[in-house]
């Protein structure tokens, strides 16, 4: 991922893919033009890198020149009136191939055609490395297209965002969601995840998603997903990961303008952790860190027994039950920490002491992300 000014871009088309596409275009054009010596006309600024690589790959003699689009001086750029400058060569009866880095709306191409109307060229061929078919609004034929891409903004390999990124040897695509801080809050029962999440979501303007709460909400409101989940629960079966992920997806989508999310109670297995990675990836984002609250077992038992006096939760009332929950956590859930360790995203935080002290420790860690 890269950042240019205020925007984040993700890797999209590799150098090798670009190289293969340019090679293919050069071979194809050389085939079609036979022994005529063509004039390749690059449209600046964006096409400089493409033209340079293209002519190196062109297997026969050729001429190269450039033209540039410039806004009329004194006219507001919002009116978008442009003209081409730099066409000084006589192109009468020549095979002319326009080399464009990208064709988007086709406005530039229209301008090119207008200019060449007056030149008595033998043939005018249009070749573009990148092409956005969904954005193209004109009827001019595109004779050679390197790579078709979706209608999203790209940078690199000559293309810029506010002047930056032209120098990058590969192409990056604008991320649909900008930078988010997504935390997996982890720890055994009684570690203080829920308590701390309440503070953190305020402090960092994050959306707290507790899968338990999401389940209860969906079941109570009888949503399609809730009913589906209930059908498993009623049969005494575990809710399949995909159902949980679909619920999470809906929550994430509902809050797509959020600064990020705190996941609490999820993932509990490596399969779920993988699914969460995929979900984040589909949102052009990722998990920033797993933050684990580390608390000694005896402290946990004391806290849960204390909570049991007021929470009304049966599973908080009995010491044997509590110790079994901790055992289940260490046996089955703790392995998820390794999943994030291997990604270098695991951060352990001392979860003992006063609530304020723990919040402060968490903030110190989150501020470094
Ligand atoms: P047109 O809409 O086909 O006329 O394209 C106009 C110009 O917009 C192109 O020559 C590029 O300079 C620029 N452009 C269009 N799409 C992109 C993009 O995804 N990234 C960077 N520049 C772009
Ligand atoms: Mg251009």
What string gives the helices and strands in order? EEHEHEEEHEEEEEHEHHHEHEHHHEH
Please state the overall shape, judged from the principal axes of the Cα atoms: elongated
Give the count of structural domains: 2
Main beta-sheet annotation: 6 strands, mixed
Question: How would you portray this structure in words?
Answer:
- There is one protein chain.
- The protein has helices spanning 15-33, 48-57, 107-116, 193-204, 211-220, 224-234, 241-254, 270-282, 297-311, 319-333, 335-342, 355-366, and strands spanning 2-4, 7-13, 39-44, 63-71, 82-85, 95-103, 123-131, 144-148, 154-155, 171-174, 183-186, 207-210, 261-264, 289-294, 346-350.
- The chain contains 12 helices and 15 strands.
- The mean pLDDT is 90.
- It folds into 2 domains: 2-174, Rossmann fold (3-Layer(aba) Sandwich); 181-367, P-loop containing nucleotide triphosphate hydrolases (Rossmann fold).
- With 369 residues, it is of the alpha/beta class.
- The chain is elongated and about 95 Å long.
- The longest helix is centred in the first third of the chain and has 19 residues, at 15-33.
- The strands form 3 sheets. The protein has a 6-stranded mixed β-sheet with strand order 5-4-3-6-7-8, with helices on both faces. It has a 5-stranded parallel β-sheet with strand order 12-13-11-14-15, sandwiched between helices.
- Residues 43, 46, 100-101, 108 line the site of magnesium ion (MG).
- Residues 43, 46, 100-101, 108 line the site of magnesium ion.
